[in-house]
Design goal:
Layout lengths: L5 H11 L1 H31 L5 H9 L2 H12 L3 H45 L18 H28 L7 H35 L4 H14 L1 H31 L6 H35 L2 H4 L8 H4 L29 H4 L2
Amino acid sequence: MARISPTLEGFRAAFRRPSLTFAEIAWRWTVGALAWALLFFWVIEYLGTLPVSNVDLALLSTRQPFLVGRALAHILRGSLNRATLAALFGAIAVSLLWIILASLGRAATVRALLDYFRRDVSSADSTETSEEPRRSRVLRSPIGLNFLRAALALAATLAFVGAAILMSLVSSSANPQPGLAFILFLLLAAVICIVWPALNWLLSLAAIFTVRDGEDALGAISAAVIFSQERSGPVAAVSTWTGLAHLAVFVGASTLASFPLAFLQIAPVRLVIAGVLLVTLGYVAVADWLYMARLAGYICIAEMPDALVSSAPSPAPPDGGRQFAPAPPAQTTIDRDEPILSDLPLSNLPAFAVET
């Protein structure tokens, strides 16, 4: 039986279904554009509310770091609380919008990929039929999972802030130890950067089972853990190859973005910014396509039978393909019916057994 590569099947599905990538780009870029627009207007409104007195202008004109710092502290002190409150409300609004759009978009893309792979399996493996339990067609929106992902991002941000505060206590003004504080902060930041992406990946993987099996948030997380354990090899292969492809795309995009920046002194600034923005948008689009290929690879692993995904092909029989009957098992017990072991007298044995 031929073995199927989930990685190749994922890339093939992304090539054959470009509409799924466009749908992924649509909801992702909608949230991103709204977030950048809110940030832009927030900065403009915040700068417009800053009071700048003549004393502040005089301190800024001195160009002395200490005096400039005092002037900036006085300027930013006026409306910083209101700006922080506005940024908090804006972040909550964007998070709620992301949760809703991400739930709807993920449900649509996962359902389309499930139909794609189920059609291929039913057409390519029609000779092997097996009665499977009828699965529910009811789709539950993975809002709970996306809410947990948003809460996880907030927890990671607070963990970074807490690590910085903790390191400030390690290196105090009475006992300054900046080197030790920096090393400890790097260790805590490394732990956060490992735990956060791992849990976020698990929650994103659980969205497949929310749509596929109609599980709730906790049931989908449990199913994702079991799935990643039972199919650890194919899952690791899909994650590794798509991750390497993403890294290659990132390096290429960074190299392309450096070319417009090289002409910053001789070219118009707007043209340079437009070039960098174009390269950035292209990179984000390719990254979304790679994410869709990875998601398709996971769904391929979940939908394909174990014999097609995880089992190795059977080795060729020896001696040119000739099949031999298996050898009978070796006898490890004593046959009590043997005449030599019988407790009967020799007179009761047959004549040919007595003759020598």
